[in-house]
């Protein structure tokens, strides 16, 4: 199936570069472009893209709020990859919390951009655990309030909590299954129940949640 893509960036040359790279792939199609956050939301509602590449710093409506609105769409919400110039941009943290499926540096090579779109379109997360940890640490420096122990953690079974902690290692379902000596189907069940109990959208938000509450550390 062809993966439909929306480009949201206020810089024409950035969009043109992305369009050139993505348009050369037989399974990828750019179905729309937006120069503001408002345009991104409106264009997504019209074109129903599978993946949106979203610049964080957008005029009219920033990329964070635009991401939140796109991920809340009732009918076939698009998956969002947020774009940033710096891997410690505090805005990246907020975008991930808003529902983005991952983030990508604008300096990434073309093959990494193509790979990112395919990964997210498949419903997987696009997270480098080490970089994600740096993003969260950077944000934490601006907040003096320690994280409150979440009461909902008490509702998790030991296995569900173990899955949550292991997500901070950036493990796939297959890797989680191997680590826990379980089948992938069983891992998916634990993951689904854990997300439901914590009120989280996907494994990306679960990873952020685990980092916030100091439940794990990325692999060195």
UniProtKB/TrEMBL annotation:
SMART domains listed in its UniProt record: HTH_LUXR (SM00421), REC (SM00448)
Domain of life (superkingdom): Bacteria
Alphabetical keyword list: DNA-binding, Phosphoprotein, Transcription, Transcription regulation
Record domain Response regulatory: where: 4-121
GO MF, one annotated term: DNA binding
Species annotation: Amycolatopsis oliviviridis
Protein name per UniProt: DNA-binding response regulator
Residues the record lists as 4-aspartylphosphate modifications: 55
Entry-linked SUPFAM superfamilies: C-terminal effector domain of the bipartite response regulators (SSF46894), CheY-like (SSF52172)
InterPro entries given in the database record: CheY-like_superfamily (IPR011006), NreC/VraR/RcsB-like_REC (IPR058245), Sig_transdc_resp-reg_C-effctor (IPR016032), Sig_transdc_resp-reg_receiver (IPR001789), Tscrpt_reg_LuxR_C (IPR000792), WalR-like (IPR039420)
Residue ranges of domain HTH luxR-type in the record: 149-214
């Amino acid at each position: 199936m062809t993966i439909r893509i929306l480009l949201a960036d206020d810089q024409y040359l950035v969009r043109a570069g992305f369009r050139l790279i993505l348009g050369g792939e037989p399974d990828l199609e750019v179905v729309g472009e937006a120069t503001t956050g408002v345009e991104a939301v409106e264009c997504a509602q019209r074109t129903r893209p599978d993946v949106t590449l979203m610049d964080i710093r957008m005029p009219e409506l920033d990329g964070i709020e635009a991401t939140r609105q796109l991920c809340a769409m009732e009918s076939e919400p698009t998956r969002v990859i947020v774009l940033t110039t710096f891997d410690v941009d505090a805005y990246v943290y907020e975008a991930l919390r808003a529902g983005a499926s991952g983030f990508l540096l604008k300096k990434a090579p073309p093959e990494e951009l193509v790979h990112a779109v395919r990964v997210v379109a498949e419903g997987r997360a696009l997270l480098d655990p080490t970089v994600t940890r740096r993003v969260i640490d950077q944000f934490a420096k601006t907040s003096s309030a320690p994280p409150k122990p979440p009461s909902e953690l008490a509702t998790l079974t030991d296995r569900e909590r173990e899955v949550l902690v292991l997500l901070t290692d950036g493990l796939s379902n297959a890797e989680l299954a191997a680590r826990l000596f379980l089948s992938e189907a069983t891992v998916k069940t634990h993951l689904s129940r854990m997300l439901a109990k914590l009120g989280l959208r996907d494994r990306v938000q679960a990873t952020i949640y685990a980092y916030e509450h100091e439940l794990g550390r990325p692999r060195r």
